[in-house]
Amino acid sequence: MAIAKRGLVLGAAAIAVAGVIVTGAGLHLSQGKAFFEESPKEVIDEVWQLIDNTYVDATFNQTDWEAVRTDYLGRDYSSQDAAYDAVREMLELLEDPYTRFMDPQEFRNMQIDTSGELTGVGIQITQEEETDEIIVVAPIEDTPAFEAGLRSKDVIMEIDGESTEGLELNDAVSLIRGPVGSDVTLTIRRDDELIDFTLQRARIEIHPVRYSIKEEPDGPIGYIRLTQFSSNASGEMQEAIESLEAENVVGYILDLRSNPGGLLYSSIEIARMWLDDGAIVSTVNRQGIVDEEVANNRALTDKPLVVLVDGGSASASEILSGALQDNDRAQLVGTQTFGKGLVQSVRSLPDGSGVAITIAKYLTPSGRDINQQGIDPDVLVELSEEERESLAENRDLIGTLEDPQYEQAQELLLQTVQAEQNTAAGVQ
């Protein structure tokens, strides 16, 4: 199966900040919009057919999908909004928070996110499948949410005093977003404590890659922090590696902590910068057809690599770290990753609305199913609550020897570098 990668976004990416490149539904937009407005049922049938043709679960959550179509097309709809409500109701039968309908405004918001710039507070959110709680996947660095101290796994209980119980993910995003300069208060549950965060919405320009050189006795180390797999991530990663190679670094630490994922093709392109050969990821659809992505002999470096991961490393981060681990290209340090291994195809509809559909799951090169399990690091390094607080309050400590996970990664990398240098010198 040849999946069109430009239309895919990975499962942990919530619409609060995720970038996605969409594919068209096949009608000219202006003609289709007029037709859909005159016939509200058409949007229902269009979405039904997309689900029928591509949804990952052939049983549709044990639902008689043909009967669903008969039911919803047999109703009368007074307006386009009524049809939109019916589509959302229909999709709820799948009990899949990642298969979701977006009205034209919501869909435009998602398209804006693709550009690497967004308006909001800078958090990636998801909806827990069993409890329906709205959960923070990760805050994006240098955003109001990050600077205020929101963390991965925080549960959003209220938005401006409104309870999130029974709230759909799309609705939560709409409440969190708003005009630049305005405030929103999030009440979150962290362990057994309720905490209020008042955040000022901002226009956020995302540069997902930062890098620096760490001087060491055995030679300089290249430190690269990747915060999101947006459309510009691979280009910035290439610039970072090429710049560090020009400085003759002896090895790399790639930091994927709190990286909530993003675009599938971005993770594949970046994996190819580190891998000369070998498999990267396999996607499996409901027919069991496997599409495998592989390295293409275009790695930018073969120097030792250690990757930092944690519970906020999700989706595309898990594809990249899993590929590097399974191919023995890198060792992973930190804690178990988030555990989201689903792929969404995002389709535009003729009236300007859109739908994200879970069409496949992905497997690492060794065949591991990451969904709900995550990836275990080679070296487990848990942070204490005091260490978490310290890093949250002083971001400059991230990626330094005051950062216990980084410290362990550096030690592991230098051991590998020294071993290679000894081998090259003929030392036994």
Give a nutshell description of this structure.
This protein is α+β, with helices and mostly antiparallel strands and 428 residues long.
Q: Would you give an account of this structure?
A:
- It is a single chain.
- The chain is globular.
- By secondary structure, the chain is of the alpha+beta class.
- It contains twelve helices and 20 strands.
- Strands 1, 2, 14, 15, 18 and 19 form a six-stranded antiparallel β-sheet that branches. Strands 4, 5, 6, 7, 8 and 9 form a six-stranded antiparallel β-sheet that branches.
What descriptive keywords fit this protein?
about 425 residues, Pdz3 Domain, 2-enoyl-CoA Hydratase, Chain A, domain 1, disordered N terminus
Blueprint of the fold:
Layout (H helix, E strand, L loop, with lengths): L7 E3 L18 H10 L2 H14 L10 H9 L6 H13 L7 E3 L1 H11 L2 E4 L2 E5 L6 E6 L4 H5 L6 E5 L2 E2 L5 H8 L6 E8 L2 E8 L1 E4 L3 E6 L6 E6 L6 H14 L4 E5 L8 H11 L4 E6 L5 E5 L10 E5 L6 H11 L4 E4 L7 E7 L5 E10 L15 E2 L4 H9 L10 H21 L4
Parallel strand pairs: 12-13, 13-16, 16-17, 17-20
Antiparallel strand pairs: 1-18, 2-19, 3-10, 4-5, 5-6, 6-7, 6-8, 8-9, 11-12, 14-15, 14-19, 18-19
Helix pairs in contact: 2-3, 2-4, 8-9, 9-10
State the distance separating the first and last CA atoms.
49 Å
Q: Structural class, from secondary structure content? A: alpha+beta
Shape summary: globular
The DSSP helix count reads: 12
CATH-derived architecture of the largest domain = Alpha-Beta Complex
Q: Number of folding domains?
A: 2
- Cα gyration radius (Å): 22 Å
| Poorly predicted tracts of residues | 1-36
